[in-house]
Amino acid sequence: MSNLPKIAWIGLGIMGSPMAENLIKAGYSVTGYTLEADKLERLAKNGGTAAGSIAEAVRDADVIITMVPASPQVEAIAYGPDGILANAKQGALLIDMSSITPQTSIDLATAAGDQGIRVLDAPVSGGEAGAIEAVLSIMVGGQQTDFDAAHPILNALGKTIVLCGPHGSGQTVKAANQLIVAINIQACAEAVVFLEKSGVDLPAALDVLGGGLAGSTVLTRKKDNFTHRDFKPGFRIDLHHKDMGIVTDAARTVGAALPVGTLVASLVASLRAQGDGSLDHSALLRGVERLSGHTTES
User: Fold this and answer.
1) How far is CA 214 from CA 32, 113, 138, 192, 193, in A?
2) The pairing of beta strand 124-125 with beta strand 136-141
3) What are the tens digits of pLDDT across the range 131-164?
4) Rounded to two decimals, what is the model's pTM?
5) Contact between residue 105 and residue 151 where contact means Cβ atoms under 8 Å apart
6) Residue 6 is among the residues annotated as catalytic for this protein
7) Which of 58, 102, 179, 295 places its Cα 20 to 30 Å from the Cα of 229?
8) Of 100, 48, 60, 103, which is closest to residue 77 (Cα–Cα)?
9) CA–CA gap between residue 109 and residue 86 (Å, rounded)
10) Which of 211, 198, 222 has its CA nearest to residue 279?
């Protein structure tokens, strides 16, 4: 029998499925629940246990990890008679790895504390590739003792794992991350259209740019998306639209100006309004192409 904590995983989407599988590979017992039957079958095929409800998944868990799209989904799975807080055992550690508003994380920590459940907010960056390769950046908010207890588990999921402050701090840092990523993708997309309209060899140009000061993780991860117009979702425009709403609202609350961020948030919203919400966020290139009269769309 393993002495490792028993883990319940709620939310087995693009990110959640490979992350849960990495914990199984690391020797953890993982019981999962999600709404999609095929995702539960995938978990079971890879050595996990499929549960029929949230209550069943969390009942005996020492650690509960959630990875769902946004604040409403976190609230839906956490609260109510069928939710996590009503069914988890006292002393359990709830690690929410969703990207949500900082206030939602603070409120969840308060409510969970009243039930004797500890909480960390621990959103991630790195996309589907980072989840698969277990090299995510994980930004954590909560108590040091809880972070220390969670660190071996998080270490099986990511490469850079940092406690950023009290509850909600992980979500604040994630919002800043999404601001930087969106602006970076937009800049790369504009450069791609500029290079192509100028007749430059695009793959060669992106290779040399990646080796200089213009190089970035975004450019490294997304250059093939740009060159091949492959917008299969690793991180959907719909979700980045949600995240840009989080960061612009949070910045307004603290009085921080986001002049470029606000513009890029509008461009993300425009792309979504044009029906591209289900595509990868590298599809910001499509918006630049449309504005430039330089489209490769069929």
Assistant:
1) 41, 45, 24, 13, 16
2) antiparallel
3) 999 999 999 999 999 999 999 999 999 999 999 9
4) 0.90
5) no
6) no
7) 179
8) 100
9) 14
10) 222
